[in-house]
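Our consortium's second objective concerns turning raw sequence data into structural hypotheses that experimental partners can test. To show how far this objective has progressed, the report includes one record in full. It was chosen at random from the queue rather than selected for favorable results. The single chain below, 525 residues long, was entered without modification.
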Amino acid sequence: MQEHQNVRAATVELGVGSLSGQDILAVARNGVPVTLAPDALAAMASSRSVIESLAADDKPHYGVSTGFGALAVKQIPPEQRTQLQRSLIRSHAASSGAPVDREVVRALMLNRLATLATGRTGVRPAVGLAYAGMLNAGLTPVVGEYGSLGCSGDLAPLSHCALALMGEGEVRTADGQLMPASAALAAAGLEPVELQEKEGLALINGTDGMLGMLTMAIADLHRLLATADLAAAMSVEGLLGSDSVFAADLQALRPQPGQGESAANIRAVLAGSALIEEQKTGGFTRVQDAYSLRCAPQVHGAARSTLQHAEMVAERERASAIDNPVVTLDGRLESNGNFHGAPVAYVLDFLAIAVADVASMSERRTDRFLDRSRSHGLNAFLAFDPGVDSGHMIAQYTQAGIVSELKRLAVPASVDSIPSSAMQEDHVSMGWAAGLKLRRALDGLTRVLAIELLTSARALDMRDGGLAAPRSAPAVTAGRTAIRAVVAGPGPDRYLAPEIEAVRVLVDSGVLLSAVEHELGTHLA
């Protein structure tokens, strides 16, 4: 998903435990520069002194003077420890497949830098400053989609970033040019970093990629769920449905907060609808609408409640200092299992389930418009001249294909586990995979909602002859007007794919939602 409207900051300053979701959006999507606060630099220097004292010790310490994973039984002499860190990064930068999106890599890097800034990893301040320098220069390491099992950190993705910091591997510049990392660093005035004891491990041992994807998905879902409420409202109006089921007192009988918010959104969008009021005074006998109309707050609300839980998990994860081993506040170096991605992986999967269900309901509403026996007076398939024209017949096919894909993407990744590292890492989270499939699911939901909105706008135009004298609610009229600014009204069949894409962009950018909210004078919940 490429087009977004997010809050822009002048700069993001990372202190000890100060990262927010808005910080991630600002840096990952908007290229806002990042700095390290004095308290972060001091904390890093303090924990580094712990590592240096252990490096001089003749006892083995994991990550400082031993190998890694199943090779932790081997102690490494001082003269080979720089090579140890270099070899770790080179060997672990083993991703494959299509490159992941730039914003995913930038979010991953920022999350790792935030953990370095806590002072719990034992890296030198110079390493953190160099990492910030890469972000600020817009250098994005090339990371393949496969390589992380979501345990012991997002190892391969993070290793590609650490490799670039060393001046190896490939990066893309701010303008998208593919370059060797050494040349890109030089062009940006940055020096490659020679990693010392513990530093290679500290750069790759966290849930940073999956957390970045979760944080961005949360922002996208806030917009998409509000848009789903808008789409449902437009479909209720276009299908001459009833708004009485959305009444606050009926919703209060089932006090699920997300449901109440969704119903309030639909009520707000439908307020002042002449089409709805006509059904109440014209001898209308249909006493109940179909579930896809009547139960929209229940489904959209359940998705909202899921999103609220995901936000809590993401907030706690951003407040975490994830590394193994970790330098404790009292100066011990301790092994732990905090790198396991289960908390993040579960909610990534949970959100994919919610996304699939919201999209499925949207497709059912669209289908009702196209069936002459259920559309209450509209042309079959909303065709201009049915038989000669096919209208939106195949747009619904496109929706159906996407919804079917979303159901497959809703199968949890986190229930799978393939043992690795000679059975030392015998249970993994697959959180990285859960994050990637959620991103695909969000793109699918965006397209499904776009088709519903395009369809409902066409149906409403057919009911009242267009926007010259609309009988829609003012908020719905604002939405229709935004759609008509990029797509012409009903007529003989046209090339439909560009029209679907134009409305997809309206949804993905937030422009459509903003037009409706401007008319309402408030934000939809």
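The partners drew two points from this record. The first strand starts at residue 12 and ends at 14. Confidence is low (pLDDT under 50) at residues 1-7. Both points have been shared with the crystallography group to help prioritize constructs.
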